[in-house]
Amino acid sequence: GQQLNQSPQSMFIQEGEDVSMNCTSSSIFNTWLWYKQDPGEGPVLLIALYKAGELTSNGRLTAQFGITRKDSFLNISASIPSDVGIYFCAGQPHNNYGQNFVFGPGTRLSVLP
Amino acid sequence: DTEVTQTPKHLVMGMTNKKSLKCEQHMGHRAMYWYKQKAKKPPELMFVYSYEKLSINESVPSRFSPECPNSSLLNLHLHALQPEDSALYLCASSPKPWLGWDKNIQYFGAGTRLSVL
After folding, report:
1. Which end of chain B is less congested by CB atoms within 10 angstroms, N or C?
2. Other residues' Cβ atoms within 10 Å of the Cβ of residue A96
């Protein structure tokens, strides 16, 4: 099946710093969705991307659909304590009829005051 | 409104109990999903309903029995569970089933935290 990799696996940053994380695959994807999950809660959709090269923002969050269609990036600017959580990417494989989208393993973000 | 509502929020059950998890959405979505999530892991797909019909069963044990009474509701019936079934159970919905070439999106509920004793 399709596999997604996310890096870094975890990161510790100071409040106010910018954050970058990415999601990669060995095959082409048509859709990238970025989610944030707090402990004990369901994933919350942050950004959806549908076109190679697309750059979309949601407040302090910006995500990009990679040109190769095999990766996606999420940036968080000026981090705050409530940014703590696990960030999952999920992708829709290309030409994979009936195949539901695939989750990456997640990036765990910790923000130090 | 992008809300997927799951009840109960928490559930504790013994191995001989029968219980049900409920999921509801009023976005007119025609695909609904059950996922199981263990701590520090991504959600794992269990079942997919497309247009109220079961379209994917990811080799889930028969002690988990899904039901889709109508396009807004999804249930997961639990019977004779094992302690290793303790997890966060997530429901999700999409406007339509995922196809390789089509735009789509997926929203999750807050989950049911299940503990099997």
Report:
1. N
2. 20
Q: What is the pLDDT of residues A54-99, one digit of tens each?
A: 999 999 999 999 999 999 999 999 999 999 999 999 988 876 655 6
- The rounded Cα B64 to chain-centroid distance in angstroms is 10
B64-97: per-residue pLDDT in tens? 999 999 999 999 999 999 999 999 999 999 998 8
- Our CA-based measurement puts residue B63 at a distance from the nearest CA of chain A, in whole angstroms, of 23
State the virtual CA torsion across A91, B77, A42, B115 in degrees, nearest 10: -120
Other beta carbons within 10 angstroms of residue B53's beta carbon come to 8
| Maximal C-alpha separation, chain B | 44
Furthest-apart CA atoms within chain A: distance in Å: 46
Is residue A73 within a helix (H) or strand (E), and if so which, with residue range? strand A71-76
A window 8-47, beta carbon within 8 A of B: 30-31, 33, 35, 40-45
Residues of chain B neighbouring A31 (CB-CB closer than 8 A):
103-104
